[in-house]
Amino acid sequence: MRRFLSWSLWDRMKSSGMESYQRGREGERRAAEYLSQQGYEILFKNWRTRTGEIDIIAFKEPFLVFVEVKTLPHGDVAMLEQVLGKIKRKRIIETAKYFIHTVRQYSNSYMRFDVLIVDMPGLPPLYHIENAFSENS
Fold first, then answer.
1. Is 125 left (phi over 0), alpha (psi -120 to 50) or beta?
2. Residue numbers in the chain where pLDDT is lower than 70
3. Nearest of 91, 125, 132 to residue 111 by alpha carbon
4. Is residue 62 a contact partner of residue 48, using CB atoms and an 8 Å limit?
5. Per-residue DSSP letters for 74-133?
6. CB under 8 Å to 57, separation ≥6 — which residues?
7. pLDDT exceeding 70 applies to what percent of the chain?
């Protein structure tokens, strides 16, 4: 693709992608800080498998909480629904199951799937949706 774009357009695309990546990482950092302040123990950030990633895995008795962080400074509810669609939710759930299978010490904990929205217009700067979805939703 590079050879079909002008240098300035290519540089802007790279810059925009890097800014988006950095904005997402900063959102994840803020989300982890918020969760810690709310009494959650942060176990892992960006826990990856071959098939998926979970942004934050936290524990707050009695729940093992798998958190998807979405930084959407220009987003709205429709965009949130799109970026957290059925396929994305299924991937998170399957990755969480693999985590439970791999990290056995949490196998007796209740699982919960939360979403933490960062900087979306019309919402507080950090908006926490507990139990945002489940395997059956």
1. alpha
2. 1-18, 137
3. 132
4. no
5. T--HHHHHHHT-HHHHHHHHHHHHHHHHHSGGGTTSEEEEEEEEES-TTS-SEEEEEEEE
6. 42, 43, 44, 45, 47, 64, 65, 66, 67, 99
7. 86
Please give the pLDDT value at position 13: 45
The residue type found at 88 is: K
Cβ proximity of 75 and 63 under 8 Å: no
Tell me the sheet residues that pair with 65: 58, 112
CA-CA distance, 121 to 75, in Å (whole number)? Answer: 7
